[in-house]
């Protein structure tokens, strides 16, 4: 299939196109909606078909990113495009570079990237963009100057506040807590940790809680398992572990479930219902949170398609429709946000399947 190489329209040209084709504004007198006619009849009519999409996660063989891939692939298929899911088995920036370079050489239209480092990938991303590839980061961002748009799961403050609140509820806001994160350079993890640290320092509701350690499992199951063991050995009075990574929380739960710490040390963080269900049912975990990673991948693909089709440029205030997910508005720094996290516990976990 011949792929159309598209470049983003400049603002003045885009304004003319939107005026004549109803790019992101539907309901004009002439019906608009681009080549497909009435956009209200076919919300995908304004998107280009035949685009190539590639999703590059932090690491493959990760249930979270596999779910994101499923959502992105479904969107790409709906939009008449080709989809590829590829990436390293280890969560490192150096491993991602070679994949970015390969996808750039293949002239991929839309690159969907969850970055392991905010700056180390920029040179390769700039080369890809200079060749016409639209770069959309999701889940974990790079420096804004290195990509076109970022699809955020939720507002960073909301995640950090929710994680700390869940931990506080489970230990009566008293005692030592620790954080088991992913990689030390992951922008999303670090942003959430900063929010938690600031809240612990300033909110009197958490005056009796103390963050005693932050460790990194590098989104590797065995390392996360070992780091959990190390935390409990180093801090015998530990009351709670917060793990804002799906790999980390599952590994920590597996460790706790087989020790005397089960039910004694609270564990919360970000995980998928399917990987955490057994640990909720056996009493290891009371409550954790996440957004729908399938919807996140779907939104990332639609965002990339909107940019590659000239519907949006990344300017604040631009609006586009992401299929059944509905309408989204581009925020400051070219950020598109999916929505608030959902809390999962024994009462609702069986209502979800991802």
**Strand coverage percent:** 15-25%
End-to-end span in angstroms?
33 Å
SSE succession: HEHEHEHEEHEHEHEHEHEHEEEE
Shape: elongated
Main sheet summary: 6 strands, parallel
Query: Please, how many helices?
Result: 10
| Poorly predicted ranges | 1-41
Summing up helix and strand content along with how strands pair, one would put the structural category as: alpha/beta
- Return the average pLDDT rounded to an integer: 89
The helix fraction, in percent, is: 25-40%
Description of the structure:
This protein is α/β, with parallel strands linked by helices. It is built from ten helices and 14 strands. It has helices spanning 11-21, 63-78, 93-105, 122-130, 156-170, 187-202, 221-234, 246-257, 273-281, 293-308; strands spanning 52-56, 82-85, 110-113, 134-138, 149-152, 175-181, 209-216, 238-243, 266-269, 287-290, 319-321, 327-329, 335-337, 342-345. A six-stranded parallel sheet has the order 2-1-3-4-5-13, with helices on both faces. It has a four-stranded parallel sheet with strand order 7-6-8-9, with helices on both faces. It has a two-stranded antiparallel ribbon with strand order 10-14. Helix 2 crosses helix 10, helix 3 (93-105) runs parallel beside helix 4 and helix 7 packs across helix 8. The protein is elongated. The two termini are 33 Å apart. The model is unreliable at 1-41 (pLDDT under 50).
């Amino acid at each position: 299939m011949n792929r159309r190489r598209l470049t983003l329209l400049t603002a003045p040209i885009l304004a003319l196109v939107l005026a004549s084709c109803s790019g992101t504004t539907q309901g004009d007198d002439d019906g608009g909606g681009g080549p497909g006619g009435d956009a209200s009849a076919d919300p995908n009519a304004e998107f280009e078909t035949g685009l190539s999409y590639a999703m590059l996660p932090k690491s493959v063989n990760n249930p979270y990113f596999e779910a994101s891939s499923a959502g992105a692939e479904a969107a790409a298929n709906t939009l008449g495009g080709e989809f590829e899911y590829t990436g390293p088995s280890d969560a490192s920036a150096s491993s991602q570079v070679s994949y970015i370079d390969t996808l750039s050489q293949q002239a991929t239209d839309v690159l969907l990237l969850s970055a392991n480092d905010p700056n180390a990938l920029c040179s390769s991303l700039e080369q890809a963009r200079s060749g016409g590839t639209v770069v959309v980061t999701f889940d974990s961002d790079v420096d804004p100057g290195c990509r076109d748009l970022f699809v955020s799961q939720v507002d960073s403050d909301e995640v950090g506040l929710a994680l700390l609140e869940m931990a506080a509820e489970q230990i009566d806001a008293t005692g030592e807590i620790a954080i088991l994160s992913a990689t030390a350079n992951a922008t999303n993890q670090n942003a959430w940790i900063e929010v938690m640290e600031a809240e612990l320092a300033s909110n009197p509701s958490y005056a009796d809680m103390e963050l005693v350690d932050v460790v990194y499992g590098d989104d590797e199951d065995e390392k996360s398992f070992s780091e959990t063991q190390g935390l409990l050995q180093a801090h015998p009075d530990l009351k709670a572990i917060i793990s804002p990574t799906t790999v980390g929380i599952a590994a920590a739960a597996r460790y706790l479930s087989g020790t005397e710490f089960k039910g004694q040390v609270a564990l919360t963080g970000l995980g998928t219902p399917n990987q955490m269900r057994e640990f909720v049912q056996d009493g290891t975990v009371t409550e954790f949170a996440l957004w729908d990673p399938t919807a996140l991948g779907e939104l990332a693909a639609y965002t990339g398609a909107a940019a590659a089709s000239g519907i949006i440029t990344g300017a604040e205030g631009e609006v586009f429709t992401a299929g059944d997910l509905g309408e989204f508005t581009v925020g400051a720094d070219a950020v598109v946000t999916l929505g608030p996290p959902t809390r999962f516990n024994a009462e609702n976990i069986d209502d979800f399947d991802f």
